[in-house]
From TrEMBL:
One GO CC annotation: membrane
Organism the protein comes from: Phaseolus vulgaris
GO terms assigned for molecular function: ATP binding; protein serine/threonine kinase activity
Protein name: non-specific serine/threonine protein kinase
EC number: 2.7.11.1
Membrane disposition: Single-pass membrane protein
Spans traversing the lipid bilayer: 516-541
Length: 892
């Protein structure tokens, strides 16, 4: 049978515009015409895609045009290009949405733009990793590189790299946002290997394809072509992969009716990992005694049995784990009962590529970018500062640690024509070991922050115009031998006690001044700017509060006078209960609901309404602090997914908190069956609880200023009310992140084993991502109903257990078996994907809560859609099935 080859050549000129079949906009598209004049912006008539110039995304390279003869074969966006005769690596920096999945396409049409007729070969990098080698074989053919990639930063850098085989250039860059739940891999990004519209004689892209995938047509000489006309997209029942109706309307069958339909290819490297997506739809009218049924066999292993494509319903079959080998053979074999041969409408094959190198630590990247712009550094500083290793920026050195982002350890800007002061942004390179600013024209004083670096061993400031006193801390470090300090040939610099008599007076004056200023400057290690920000924020918050209070006053006419302090106390006052009130409310502590670390919780009633009263054990000093923290917090926060505070009692040793009563206890009780009226949650109900909890968490992080870290997210702290709406409880351990600028709080390790962020455990650094980790663990519990730590011969954490099964693609083993398969597989995969991202050991890889909420909602809507369609035989939803996990015929 026909051997498939990679036809990754976009014959854009051959595109034929078919009738517009789907209303759609270009939201989520970024379409860049490289080399176009700075303000260029135009719409391609063939596709309707709007392109803009690359001018504001890069400031190197030169604009060129392809030779005019070729222009008529190509759309306008291919006519110009940007060429990079200078520099080893030149980079585009394009803003995108972090955590989103993108189809990224880069186009290269040489078109003899330089009149040399010499075909170049060069590399393309994506961020810190090599992406591909562009090898132009034919100057009149547009070579397209395509990748499906999830962005880990809020920008992506695409770099053209000179490898000594010709000048790099680029013609176009196109980014298309995909939904995150399609093209899911075990690891890595996906490079397009083949995308074929079977049985067609023309290629399609946008607007036929809403994701602008280019479907090319292949060599199909031994296959029979079939086609049907689909008048509108509505006639086709779609699935999440959204194959274009026009692509699905053609198909092939083997020309010999009894022979199998074979798709085979031979990878260049047998360890390459491939993912296959097959698209099926019945397009023939079948007679009453006609059937089309076939088995799908991969290298002799049956992957799917008795598959029967459905009429006008697009079905995508894909492999959730990769295939590899020296030859990969997929064979579609007719079953005995089948009267018709197998059929296939479209096919995609992707090759997984790993991008193992993480980008430079963001704080370092930001700092060095600032330094570059402040001093106007003219070096070839492009792309990621530290990676790949052999493209390290000239004058830097970095430390590389497998798991973590590279950190800048050396900054050498000697003899670089720097002028002005020593800039405070240098202080942010907190891992610096060597700093060389010698032989420049730097002036001003030596800032104190230079003595604050923990690891600095070499500081060279020779041959500048620095003046004033050398900070004593630096001199001391140098005397102790922990720092090699060079300050020679700065004519106006002096060390304490060695300055000449005339200057002595001034020095004294300055010293006195310094004595006042220095402590502050020193403790914040030069980040004076941060201090100002903090002040501004506090001031803004105060202002806002004040305004809110005034409104309240106008409306309720209470509290004619108040001071700044009342700010907090005023709303509290309404909800204070005396100890005798508490006794009445709880009927003398008649009913105990539970015992916590800091006291006992009782059932109470205020005007018939049930409440939960948490009394603090009087001995607990820590508890008292928690109590205060919790009161302060709960007064500030209000959200439907956070347990709300009704009031509190604070009479000497009698301290209590009164909450709304959560009638159905906590999530853990139900999952484990320990609740007296245990409810078994369906998949949909589980997702609703997860969404509720995520919304509560998101509010704490994004709705509160400053944000709040809960610190003890666990399934026993997710409470359920009468309607089983979930709310986060127990803020006793919560910590407020003190400033908007700071991202973490160092604190004593607290929390619950199994839920605790391993990174926090080691570093004592508490961040919002610590809560994300704990939330991920809860999500895994919801999905699997397994204990957080599985105790057997050795203890296994739930996240490791799930990850091992994910690698096997074994979703059925992951999901709580009591659900008995009653769920949408894609919905579960999505939830598992979110959860495993949340429990990533590297906190940078964990998603932000707002993304978690969106993703969980998507997962929920998949499940809801499945249920809606179930039981109504007329509205089958288009399906996408997972080859490796759906061995059983007609599962569901
Ligand atoms: C395709 O068909 C032709 C005859 O029509 C035959 O000679 C050739 O071997 C076939 N190719 C393959 C790969 O089966
Ligand atoms: C594309 O550009 C045209 C003209 O500049 C504009 O009218 C149209 O709304 C744009 N289309 C989209 C989808 O942005
Ligand atoms: C990209 O985002 C950064 C930070 O938000 C912003 O400063 C910059 O102007 C943006 N660049 C473009 C080209 O929009
Ligand atoms: C390059 O491709 C064009 C268009 O397919 C073709 O006409 C031409 O012969 C090719 N040139 C070479 C050198 O292969
Ligand atoms: C059709 O395929 C069957 C099974 O592979 C084979 O036995 C038969 O010879 C083929 N017929 C022709 C005409 O090639
Ligand atoms: C269905 O099968 C019967 C008996 O096998 C045959 O006579 C008839 O022609 C078939 N009909 C079609 C539409 O193939
Ligand atoms: C073939 O079809 C018949 C009738 O529909 C059915 O009884 C039989 O089990 C089928 N055979 C196989 C192998 O599926
Ligand atoms: C960079 O640092 C590494 C060790 O971290 C060292 O081996 C290497 O020689 C350094 N490179 C330069 C140019 O200083
Ligand atoms: C900085 O670079 C210069 C030359 O580029 C070199 O002579 C000097 O030793 C370097 N400084 C350090 C601290 O490595």
């Amino acid at each position: 049978m026909g051997m498939l080859r990679c036809f990754l050549v976009g014959f854009v000129g051959a595109l034929v515009l078919a009738a517009l079949i789907q209303a759609q906009d270009q939201s989520g598209f970024i379409s860049i015409d490289c080399g176009a004049t700075a303000d260029a912006s135009f719409t391609e008539s063939k596709t309707g895609i709007n392109y803009t110039s690359d001018a504001n995304l890069i400031n190197t390279g030169v604009s060129m045009s392809i030779e005019s003869d070729l222009k008529k074969q190509y759309q306008r966006y291919m006519w110009t290009l940007r060429s990079f005769p200078e520099g080893k690596r030149n980079c585009y920096k394009i803003n995108i949405t972090r955590g989103s999945k993108y189809l990224i396409k880069t186009g290269f049409l040489y078109g003899n733009y330089d009149g040399l007729n010499k075909l170049p070969k060069f590399d393309v990098h994506l961020g810190a990793n090599r992406w591909s080698t562009v090898n132009i074989n034919n100057g009149s053919i547009n070579e397209v590189n395509e990748i499906i990639h999830v962005a880990s930063l809020d920008y992506v850098q695409i770099c053209l790299v000179d490898t000594g085989s010709g000048t790099p250039f680029i013609s176009s860059i196109e980014l298309r946002t995909l939904t995150n739940d399609i093209y899911v891999t075990e690891s890595g990004s996906l490079e397009t290997y083949i995308r074929w519209d079977m049985g067609s004689n023309i290629g399609y892209r946008y607007k036929e394809d809403i994701y602008d995938r280019y479907w090319s047509y292949g060599n199909i000489n031994n296959w029979t072509q079939l086609s049907v006309s689909i008048s509108s997209a509505d006639a086709l029942e779609q699935n999440v992969y959204q194959p274009p109706a026009i692509v699905m309307s053609t198909a092939v069958t083997p020309s010999n009716d009894s022979a199998p339909l074979v798709i085979n290819w031979m990878p260049d490297d047998p360890t390459d990992k491939f993912y296959l997506y097959m698209y099926f739809m019945e397009i023939q009218e079948l007679g009453t005694n006609q059937t089309r049924e076939f088995n799908i066999v991969e290298n002799g292993i049956q992957r799917y049995s008795k598959f029967s494509p459905k009429n006008l319903i697009a079905t995508t079959l894909y492999s959730s784990s990769a295939s590899s080998g020296s030859e990969i053979i997929y064979s579609l074999q007719k079953t005995k009962n089948s009267t018709l041969p197998p059929i296939i409408n479209a096919l995609e094959i992707y090759k997984a590529i790993d991008f193992p190198q993480s980008e430079t630590f963001k704080g370092d990247d930001d700092a060095i970018t600032a330094i570059k712009s402040i001093y106007g550094v003219t070096r070839d500083w492009q792309g990621d500062p530290c990676a790949p290793v052999d493209y390290l920026w000239d004058g830097l050195n970095c430390s590389y640690n497998k798991k973590e982002s590279p950190r800048i350890t050396t900054l050498n800007l000697s003899s670089s024509g720097l002028s002005g002061k020593i800039d405070p942004s240098i202080a942010n390179l907190s891992m610096l070991e060597k700093l060389d600013l010698s032989n420049n024209s730097l002036n001003g004083e030596i800032p104190d922050f230079l003595s604050q670096f923990q690891h600095l061993k070499i500081l060279n400031l020779e041959k500048n115009n620095l003046s004033g006193l050398i900070p004593t801390a630096l001199v001391e470090k140098s005397k102790k031998g922990s720092l090699s300090l060079s300050v020679d040939q700065n004519p106006n610099l002096c060390e304490s006690g060695q300055c000449n008599v005339q200057d002595e007076g001034k020095e004294k004056e300055k010293k006195e001044k310094n004595n006042i200023v220095a402590p502050i400057v020193a403790t914040v290690s030069g980040v004076v700017i941060l201090l100002i920000v903090v002040v501004a924020v506090v001031w803004m918050v105060k202002r806002r509060k004040l305004k809110a209070l005034i409104v309240e006053k106008d409306q309720s006419q209470i509290s004619p006078q108040y001071t700044e302090q009342d700010d907090l106390v005023l709303p509290l006052r309404k909800q204070i209960y005396s100890y005798s009130d508490v006794l009445k409310i709880t009927n003398n502590f008649n009913t105990t609901l539970g015992k916590g670390g800091f006291g006992t919780v009782y059932l109470g009633h205020i005007d018939e309404t049930p409440v939960a009263v948490k009394m603090l054990s009087s001995s607990s000093v820590q508890g008292f602090q928690q109590f205060q923290a919790e009161v302060k917090l709960l007064m500030r926060v209000h959200h439907k997914n956070l347990t709300s505070l009704v009031g509190y009692c604070n009479e000497e040793t009698n301290k209590g908190l009164i909450y709304e009563y959560m009638a159905n206890g906590d999530l853990q009780e139900h999952l484990s069956g320990k609740h007296s009226k245990t409810k078994f949650f369906t998949w949909e109900e589980r997702l609703r609880i997860a969404v509720d909890a995520a919304l509560g968490l998101e509010y704490l992080q994004n709705g509160c200023k400053p944000p709040i870290i809960h610190r003890d997210i666990k399934s026993t702290n997710i409470l359920l009310n009468e309607q089983f709406q979930a709310k986060l409880a127990d803020f006793g351990l919560s910590k407020i992140i003190p400033t908007e600028g700071g991202t973490h709080v160092s604190t004593v390790v607290a929390g619950t084993p199994g839920y605790l962020d391993p990174e926090y455990f080691i570093t004592n650094r508490l961040t919002e991502k610590s809560d994300v980790f704990s939330f991920g663990v809860v999500l895994l519990e919801i999905i699997t109903n397994q204990p957080v730590i599985m105790r057997g011969e050795e203890s296994i954490h739930i996240s490791d257990w799930v990850k091992s099964l994910v690698l096997k693609g074994d979703i059925k083993a992951i999901v709580d078996s009591r659900l008995e398969g009653d769920y949408d597989t894609n919905s579960v995969w999505k939830a598992v994907e979110i959860a495993t991202e949340c429990v990533s050991p590297n906190m940078n890889r964990r998603p932000v809560t707002s993304v978690i909420v969106i993703e969980l909602k998507e997962s929920l809507s998949m499940e809801v859609a499945r249920k809606k369609h179930r039981g109504n035989p007329l509205t089958h939803s288009g399906v996408s099935m997972n080859l490796n996990t759906e061995f059983i015929p007609h599962a569901r």
